[in-house]
Every structure is written in structure tokens, then in C-alpha cells.
Specification:
Elements (H helix, E strand, L loop, with lengths): L4 H4 L8 E2 L3 E6 L11 H9 L4 E7 L5 H13 L4 E6 L2 H14 L7 E5 L1 H5 L5 H18 L9 E4 L3 E5 L3 H12 L3 E5 L14 E2 L4 E2 H14 L3 E4 L2 E7 L5 E8 L5 E8 L1 E4 L3 E3 L15 E3 H8 L10 E2 L2 E2 L2 E8 L24 H15 L4 E6 L9 H10 L3 E4 L7 E4 L7 E7 L5 E7 L1 E6 L1 E3 L3 H7 L26 E3 L9 H21 L1 E4 L4 E3 L9 H5 L5 E4 L4 E4 L9 H5 L5 E3 L4 H11 L10 E2 L2
Parallel strand pairs: 2-3, 2-4, 4-5, 7-8, 7-15, 8-11, 15-28, 17-26, 20-21, 20-26, 21-22
Antiparallel strand pairs: 1-34, 6-29, 9-10, 12-13, 13-14, 16-27, 18-19, 23-24, 24-25, 30-33, 31-32
Helix pairs in contact: 2-6, 3-4, 6-16, 7-8, 7-13, 9-10, 10-11
This protein binds flavin-adenine dinucleotide and iron/sulfur cluster (SF4) (3 copies).
The site of one iron/sulfur cluster (SF4) has 14 residues, from helix 14 and strand 32.
Length: 614
């Protein structure tokens, strides 16, 4: 491992024993902090603590002059430890580590203290805020002498990518990677590429034929020299980690046999898409009447190449009245909807169905002007660019809208007069609670989207999933297309309900993130991983069982635990669990943590200690 000179531009010449020379820099944050915290007083209080040789404040530590002041102070006062007390480390820890490195100091001899989000933004009382800020910084002063001059980890990345799932997202991701010169292995569990789009006729918001969009994409993928497509293929096994994944896939052969292959890849993009919610027997009369169908059935019916040749009919009988119902299997309520086998309800919005419905409703009125169209909803959420136009259009072409109370949804039942197959009723909130009832020869349910059963995939790659069962990104804003485990990317609706625009945007983002990694050839990771002390390890295997990332294995020969550098995310669980205290985590060793905790409890060291530096 070595410090990446291009990132930090500094060596790490610290070594041997020397007295800590600590610099403390307290930020005003333009008043964000100093309006509440008496930063001058805090800096003065820190200046008399053991080891502190320089303590000051600055209006904006993150500004260029602020950073320069750190660099100058390191040189002028020969600092070997730096503390900045400012905003959240999420925002500027890296900024300050880089400033420290530019001055020739190892960037991990820096400590960031958050006195904005943790103090000035949450405490009104100025005296209390000032005392808390001082206590937090004094804890850092106690801790920093024990910091070690760590180095980034460099993990090499294999040059190929594995994309799992051949819907529009997987195809887009595969093509974007291949166009960048990366070899791509694309697996699809069915016998065709295209995913859900193969089942759609025209799509919102552009009203293009789905086949006009997906067919060229499929052809380009199939003919691209960098892409290997494996149809009828499932995942069987996986070993390795970022940069060096080995995935065993199994392809069903036409003769019923199986072909097993191992795919070696540096990165993996998951694009297995979504399932459509299957209504319960009797839900809006579904299953009890053939006249209750889903949006996909309607798409097939409207397609001139479909089973009815483009005619709206149920069992050969022409449809005169169509009623749409929104939010079927989405935005469910615990007191109304029965949970599924896993005990969960789908309480989220499926995001595609409102526009899908108003688009289909407007299309029916235009293409079949004799057909009456009714729309029953609790809300209309046509949020995307051009989506609201379909809502307006549907109103203009005569679709009638009714709004029900989510706690008293619309009711579908056989027509007591027998004039139409069914009737749909609700108390309409748009007309101050008028009881409405419309005839329906066909009821189209706006079925929501829900996560597929991804048990194998989740087990193989240790993916996190959200409470909505979809795969969960590492951070919704900062790492929106990555899983928490490095090297795994999320492409499209496997991450949550999306329309085609969103799914392809997500896939393109995943491809560019993955390509950036592969093209660089290595990944640089923070050094805060755990390490086993061979002398102390008794081989009890407690750590193997608690590691959430399967990063620990057993060295059978030595009878001890071994931690994989590539897999360890530095969560610290094993260090806390080891009964023999045989695991230490870089950046959080016992001395660092204990000195910090003691200082937080008010136990302040009186004497300076000599500590190993480097
Ligand atoms: C009724 C309906 C109407 C819609 N209308 C529109 C519309 O008009 N406009 C619009 O923008 N969006 C629309 N959508 C949404 C659109 O279908 C999705 O946004 C899009 O299909 C998402 O693409 P995807 O690639 O993420 O997932 P999918 O299309 O679901 O593709 C996933 C692929 O992965 C494969 N797969 C699954 N598991 C595995 C595995 N373990 N290994 C390998 N392969 C696997 C699947 O077979 C599939 O081919 C509609 C959706 C529905 C249900
Ligand atoms: S998009 Fe509309 S129909 Fe679909 S779940 Fe959301 S609110 Fe309901
Ligand atoms: S828990 Fe500690 S002692 Fe037990 S195997 Fe792991 S490192 Fe060794
Ligand atoms: S720090 Fe966390 S990820 Fe790393 S080996 Fe320990 S338990 Fe596993």
C-alpha cells in the first residue's frame, strides 16, 4: 500500500517517537458556528491543553485562505497533528486531509470535529454550546497523539464487467460500458432480451411504440463485439470482491442440460428490474370476473399485433365503458391492506402508474371515441417531464375523473341491472362526497411495481435491501447507484419503481461509475480496516460469524482468523466482538478510542506523552 501521490502529493516521513505538536483550527463558518459558539474562547481553552502548540480560529476554514493557513501553520509550528473543528466531516474531511498532505504531513494525522451539525445548529444556549464544542475538541486533542500515519489501500480492478439482467436498464448499462472499450458479460434469466418493455405497446411520455425503442437497443447489444450475452442464465455462486469477482453462472441448454461458466469481472451491475403486483383474489373483483384486468393486459389489447388485433373486448364482447383504478398494490395502508407473506405492505408509490393510466385513458378516447373512460384515483402523480400533458390531454378528450378517500377505496361489483359486466362506485371527493356509480365492461387495475425475489443474488453479493424490499443504494444522494459493498452497482428499477427514462438514466450513471473504476485499473480505499493480531487470536471464530460482509476467513494451517482487505468495509463489528481483543481497527484502535472517551468524560491528561509518529 502506498499513498497516492497524485491525490495527496505528500510523503509520509513521520516515524519514530516524538512529542505531539498539535494544531487546533476552529471555524466560524461565517457565523453558522460563531453566532452560537464562542469560538475565540474555545481556541484559547484548547491552546493550554497538553501537546497543543497552535490554536486559532478562521472565518471559513474550508476556503482557500483557510486551507492555506493550515498548511502555513504546519510548516511554521512544525505540527505533527492537526484538528479542524468545523462542519460535518462528510462535507470537508477530505478537503482538510488534502490540505494537511500538501504541507507534507500524512493526511491520516488529521482529525475532524463537527461543531456545526453537532453543536451550533442544535443547541440554542450559547454557554452550553461553547462548553460542548470545547469538550468535543478536547477529546480530539486527547485522541490525536495516538493516530497512526496510515496509507490508502490500492486494490487492482479486473478489466471486465458483469451485467445481470437484460431489460432496458441492463442493455443500456452493457452498451455504455462496451462503448468505452470494456468487455461485458450480460446475463438474462429468460430466453429474450428487453425485459418489461417487450410487454408494452406505446409508452409515455413520447407515445412511441415500445418496440421501436427496445428493438434497436437489443440488436446493438447482440452485435457489439465487446458484449457476451448469456440467455436462460442464472447465477449459481460467487467469490471474490471488488476488482476480482468470480461469478459462476449456469445456462440452460435447449436439450435440457446445463452449461456452467465462471465469469471473472472487476465490477458488477445489477439490473434485474421489477415485478408487477399481482392483486389478491377478489381485490377490486380481480379473479372473480374476466373483465378485471391489469395495465399490461390493456397494452396487449391495444396492440394491433396483439391477441385481439387491437380491439377492446373481453371474451369477444366489445368494451363500451372502461374504468381505471389507481394505486393497486401501492400506497397501501396497514389497517386496510393485508400484508404479504413477509409481513409487509407496499406503502410506497409505484411512480409509473398514474402517467401510465392517464396515457392509456387518453389513447382509448382518441383511438376508440365511442368508449367511455372513467378514472378512479386517490391522487394523481404525473410528476415527470411531459407527464402532466397526458393528464391534461385525458381531461380534454373526455376522461371523467373521480377521487376516492384512501381509507374508503372504490368498490367494484357485478352490475345489479346486468347492463354491463360490472359497476364501480365511490364517494367522490371532487364533488364534495357525491356517491357515484359508473358501468364498466372492463376494469383496468393500475398495478404497482414490487421488488423481485432476489434471494440468491442478495446472498451471493451480500446486497442490502430497503424496507420496501428493493436493493438499497449506499447513500441516496452521494452514492445513488452503488451498493454499500464496493464494486457493485445498481442499474434501473431493481432499486425502486422507475419509468424507462429513470431506469436508463440510472443505468447510464451506473455504467459511467463502473467504467471509471475499470479504466483506472485500481481502486483506492480508506485504510480504516480491521486487522487480526496473530499472537492473540485463539481461533474461536466469533468474528467470522459477526462480520456482515463475509470478510473474515479461517487460516486452517495457523488456526486463526484472517481479514480480506478488499472485503472489509471497516464497520468495526469484529473488533468489538473478539473476546481475545485480537482485532484492532486502523483509525479506531483501543488507545485512540479510549483516550477520546476519557476526555469526553472530562478526564484530561495533564502531561504530554511521547507517542510513536508514523
Ligand atoms: C404496465 C406497465 C406499463 C408501463 N408503461 C411505461 C411507459 O409507458 N413508459 C415508461 O417510461 N415506463 C413504463 N413502465 C415502466 C417500465 O416498464 C420500466 O421502467 C422498465 O421496464 C424498467 O426496466 P429495467 O431494465 O429496470 O427492468 P425490467 O424491464 O424488469 O428488466 C429486468 C430484466 O432482468 C431479467 N432478470 C430478472 N432476474 C434476473 C436474474 N436473476 N438474472 C438475470 N436476469 C434477470 C428479467 O428477465 C428482465 O429481462 C411500465 C411498466 C408497466 C408494468
Ligand atoms: S403513480 Fe399514481 S397510481 Fe401509481 S402508486 Fe403512485 S399515486 Fe398510485
Ligand atoms: S474473534 Fe478474535 S480470537 Fe476469535 S477467531 Fe476472531 S480474531 Fe481470533
Ligand atoms: S471491520 Fe467489519 S467488515 Fe471488516 S472484517 Fe470486521 S466485521 Fe468484517
Amino acid at each position: 500500500m502506498s499513498i497516492n501521490e497524485s491525490t495527496f502529493g505528500a510523503g509520509n516521513g513521520e516515524s519514530g517517537m516524538e512529542k505531539p505538536r498539535i494544531g487546533v483550527f476552529v471555524c466560524h463558518c461565517g457565523g453558522n458556528i460563531s453566532d452560537v459558539v464562542d469560538v475565540k474562547r474555545v481556541a484559547e481553552e484548547m491552546s493550554v491543553l497538553p501537546g497543543v502548540v497552535h490554536s486559532t480560529t478562521h472565518m471559513f476554514m474550508c476556503s482557500d485562505p483557510g486551507q492555506t493557513s493550515i498548511e502555513e501553520a504546519i510548516k511554521e509550528h512544525n505540527l505533527n497533528r492537526v484538528i479542524v473543528a468545523a462542519c460535518s466531516p462528510t462535507l470537508h474531511e477530505l478537503t482538510f486531509r488534502r490540505a494537511v498532505a500538501r504541507a507534507g504531513l500524512n493526511p491520516y494525522l488529521f482529525e475532524h470535529v463537527n461543531i456545526r451539525e453537532h453543536v451550533s445548529w442544535v443547541i440554542e444556549d450559547k454557554e452550553a454550546a461553547t462548553r460542548k464544542a470545547a469538550r468535543l475538541i478536547s477529546a480530539a486533542v486527547s485522541r490525536v497523539p495516538y493516530l497512526e500515519a496510515l496509507e490508502k489501500r490500492h486494490i487492482p480492478i479486473h478489466g471486465a464487467a458483469l451485467v445481470i439482467g437484460g431489460g432496458v436498464a441492463g442493455l443500456t448499462c452493457a452498451l455504455d460500458l462496451a462503448r468505452r472499450g470494456i468487455e461485458v458479460h450480460l446475463t438474462e434469466s429468460t430466453d429474450v432480451l428487453g425485459g418489461r418493455m417487450l410487454e408494452l405497446y406505446t409508452v409515455f411520455p413520447t407515445n412511441e411504440k415500445a418496440s421501436d425503442l427496445i428493438d434497436p437497443l437489443i440488436k446493438e447489444v447482440q452485435s457489439h463485439p465487446n458484449i457476451h450475452v448469456y440467455l436462460n442464465t442464472q447465477l449459481r455462486d460467487s467469490t471474490g470482491a471488488i476488482g476480482d469477482f468470480h461469478t459462476t453462472i449456469v445456462t440452460k441448454k435447449p436439450d435440457g442440460g446445463e452449461e456452467e461458466r465462471e465469469i471473472h469481472s472487476g465490477v458488477i451491475a445489477i439490473a434485474v428490474g421489477v415485478d408487477v403486483y399481482q392483486p389478491r383474489e377478489g381485490e377490486y373483483y380481480f379473479g372473480k370476473s374476466p373483465a378485471v384486468v391489469g395495465l399490461l393486459d390493456l397494452q396487449a389489447m391495444m396492440n394491433p399485433d396483439g391477441p385481439t388485433g387491437g380491439k377492446l373486448e373481453i371474451n369477444g364482447k366489445p368494451v363500451k365503458n372502461v374504468a381505471f383504478i389507481h394505486c393497486v398494490g401501492s400506497r397501501q395502508w396497514p389497517d386496510i391492506h393485508e400484508p404479504q407473506a413477509d409481513g409487509k405492505i407496499n406503502d410506497y408509490c409505484s411512480r409509473y402508474c398514474c402517467t401510465g393510466i392517464v396515457h392509456a385513458a387518453a389513447e382509448i378516447r382518441e383511438k376508440y371515441p365511442d368508449v367511455n373512460v372513467y378514472d378512479f384515483h386517490e391522487d394523481i402523480r404525473t410528476y415527470g417531464r411531459g407527464h402532466e400533458d397526458w393528464y391534461t390531454k385525458a381531461s380534454e378528450v373526455g376522461v371523467l375523473f373521480f377521487r376516492f378517500d384512501p381509507h374508503k377505496p372504490a368498490v367494484v361489483e357485478p352490475d345489479p341491472k346486468g347492463e354491463s359486466a360490472l359497476v364501480v362506485k365511490c364517494k367522490d371527493r371532487l364533488t364534495n362526497g357525491l356517491e357515484v356509480e359508473v358501468p364498466a365492461d372492463m376494469v383496468v387495475l393500475g398495478n404497482g411495481l414490487q421488488a423481485r425475489d432476489m434471494t440468491t443474488l442478495i446472498d451471493l453479493y451480500r446486497c442490502s435491501r430497503g424496507s420496501d424490499r428493493f436493493l438499497l443504494e449506499a447513500h441516496p444522494k452521494l452514492r445513488p447507484v452503488e451498493l454499500a459493498s464496493f464494486g457493485l452497482f445498481l442499474a434501473g428499477s431493481v432499486q425502486g419503481p422507475m419509468d424507462i427514462t429513470e431506469a436508463t438514466a440510472g443505468a447510464a450513471a451506473a455504467a459511467s461509475k463502473a467504467a471509471a473504476l475499470v479504466k483506472r485499473g485500481f481502486i483506492e480505499l480508506d485504510p480504516f480496516i480491521a486487522k487480526v493480531n496473530e499472537e492473540l487470536c485463539t481461533g474461536c471464530q466469533t468474528c467470522l460469524n459477526v462480520c456482515p460482509f463475509d470478510a473474515i476467513s479461517r487460516d486452517e494451517e495457523k488456526g486463526i482468523a484472517v481479514i480480506s482487505e478488499a472485503l472489509c468495509t471497516g464497520c468495526g463489528t469484529c473488533a468489538a466482538a473478539c473476546p481475545s481483543n485480537a482485532i484492532q481497527q486502523f483509525g479506531f484502535n483501543d488507545a485512540e478510542v479510549m483516550s477520546e472517551v476519557l476526555a469526553l468524560l472530562g478526564v484530561v491528561k495533564k502531561e504530554e506523552e511521547e507517542v510513536p509518529v508514523g
